[in-house]
């Protein structure tokens, strides 16, 4: 299929698999040398300072960041559609009341793919916002957030092989098929 056709069919498809393919295609389109030159290597935690005054809202469970910021923040609120029986994870409908109280907001890139990003951003009342994760579209000036944190593909053949064998984010980073990058807007 042509890129145009994939995007027309997939970006707003009700099928999550088709949407995922369309957003992966969109991310590949945005992966130009000009945009890649805007990336900074590293992890989101290097670009957002968190202190004991902060209440951090996580949209999606991003355990490595949550675990590293727990001792540094006043409170961490985790919102997720799939609560998986955890008492510490709030349902996504609690975003309406609690997200506006957060001084730092970290949104999983899957919110773009599942179509909830605009709804979530309506409840953000801080400038200290980041969209993170391997599905994050690293496209400048598309989302009204301070930081986009995602991945840059280093070896597409290795990445394809790892993903086809079921590798997750930790594995594809450890195997150096990708690197973590941040786009500061």
UniProtKB/TrEMBL annotation:
InterPro entries: DUF364
Matches recorded under SUPFAM superfamilies: Dhaf3308-like
Domain Putative heavy-metal chelation: 47-173
Domain of life, per lineage: Bacteria
Pfam families reported in the protein's UniProt record: DUF364
Protein name: Putative heavy-metal chelation domain-containing protein
